[in-house]
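Subject: sequence -> structure tokens, single chain

Hey, anyone have a minute? Need the predicted structure for the following. Not urgent.
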Amino acid sequence: MNTDKIVAESIAKEYAPKNNSKIVALKKLDRKAKIPATVFTYTFGIVASLIAGTGMCLAMQVIGSGTAGLVSGIVLGVIGFVGCGVNYPLYKRILEKSKTKYAYEIVELAREISEQ
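Reply:
Had a minute. Here:
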């Protein structure tokens, strides 16, 4: 066997234009269904973590001082931790809604691809 020929063909296949655009369209639809939930989750998680961290700093009197700082720090910390706790259930709910929005298109396109 000529291994050079096999290697050359595999490299050429990488750079050849993809004619299976239905697979590409299916991947784009899948990504389009998942992106909103992912973006929201990361944003909400970062904000909730920052709120919790600020609350911890206030409670430990790294920033601020006195009883008012302690109490507001505890309240902010609890709010931040609750936000971190509800982040995953919110992600699942948003993802489910987004999947149901694009479910018909994705299933139809997948059916077309599998029938070929």
